[in-house]
Structures are given as C-alpha cells and as structure tokens.
C-alpha cells in the first residue's frame, strides 16, 4: 500500500467558498496542486474529472463495475453510515480496485472529539478534564518535524530586530 494524498474537487471548491459542482478552472486546480507539491513529497491524486458509481450496495456490484471497466483505474470513494458495505483496503484490492479513500472519516472522528471537548468545557468551565485526550505541544512538534524546519530557517536567514 502506497501513501498518497488525495485532493478532492469538493475540497477545492469548498476552500473557495463555492458549492461542490466541480466547476473550477484548470488554473485554479493547478494552484492547489502547486500548494500541495510545495509542502509534500507524497504522490498526489487529484479529482479533476471523476466519474464513479454512487452507493454500490454489495460486493457483487463492486465486482460488476470492475468487470464492465477492464483496464480502467478504479477508485472506491468510501464513507461511513451509507448503504455501501464496509470493506478493507485489502478487500478492495482483491476486487480489482486500484485505490480506496475515506475522505471524510478523519473529519468524523475529529468532529466527535470536538463534541466531547465542548461538552466538557460547557460542563466544567475549563479544559482540564480533556487534557488526557489532547496532543501535547511536544507530540505536535515531533509529528510535524518542527526541529527540521527550525534548522532550515536558521540556515537561510537570521531575524534582525529593528534598532
């Protein structure tokens, strides 16, 4: 399994304050691609002209789509709480799908965590009860590799305070 970034049409249009109708220019899409390419070395899959079957309700339907589209790269765009069966990435691979994404799953988890956080804040008037659930500053810095960025900054230029 290869780590890959996915840039959805909905994400691009939403960041521009537009509805998810897929009507943006090639220049606008290229802008988003450049922004991501500047910050990541991971491969980027861009939703430029996606056609995908909606709400396949059985493994048999996934097999049927694969059989009807030989040689076409297939992407399973998954979400929870729908009619599509919950399958693993390995199961999709076995069905002949080349890629599978869960584009809103992490958002659902984050939203649930925020719900718990704000309930505790409203109840207690403080964030103390949620400290064990929080990422510490040290964990964040480690995750994003802040020390490497600071070293890069120091190697490029040093800040000068005005006199």
UniProtKB/TrEMBL annotation:
<dbReference type="InterPro" id="IPR040442">
    <property type="entry name" value="Pyrv_kinase-like_dom_sf"/>
</dbReference>
<dbReference type="GO" id="GO:0046421">
    <property type="term" value="F:methylisocitrate lyase activity"/>
</dbReference>
<protein>
    <submittedName>
        <fullName>PEP phosphonomutase and related enzymes-like protein</fullName>
    </submittedName>
</protein>
<dbReference type="GO" id="GO:0019629">
    <property type="term" value="P:propionate catabolic process, 2-methylcitrate cycle"/>
</dbReference>
<dbReference type="InterPro" id="IPR015813">
    <property type="entry name" value="Pyrv/PenolPyrv_kinase-like_dom"/>
</dbReference>
């Amino acid at each position: 399994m290869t780590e890959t970034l996915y840039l959805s049409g909905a994400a691009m249009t939403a960041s521009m304050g537009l509805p998810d109708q897929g009507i943006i220019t090639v220049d606008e899409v290229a802008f988003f691609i450049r922004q991501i390419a500047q910050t990541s070395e991971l491969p980027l899959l861009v939703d430029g002209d996606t056609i995908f079957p909606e709400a396949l309700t059985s493994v048999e339907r996934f097999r049927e789509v694969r059989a009807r589209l030989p040689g076409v790269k297939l992407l399973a765009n998954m979400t929870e709480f729908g009619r599509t069966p919950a399958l693993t990435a390995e199961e999709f691979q076995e069905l002949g799908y080349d890629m599978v994404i869960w584009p809103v799953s992490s958002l659902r988890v984050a939203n649930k965590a925020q719900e718990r956080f704000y309930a505790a804040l409203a109840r207690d008037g403080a964030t103390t009860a949620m400290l064990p659930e929080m990422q510490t500053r040290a964990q964040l810095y480690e995750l994003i590799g802040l020390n490497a960025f600071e070293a890069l900054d120091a190697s490029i230029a040093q800040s000068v305070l005005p006199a």
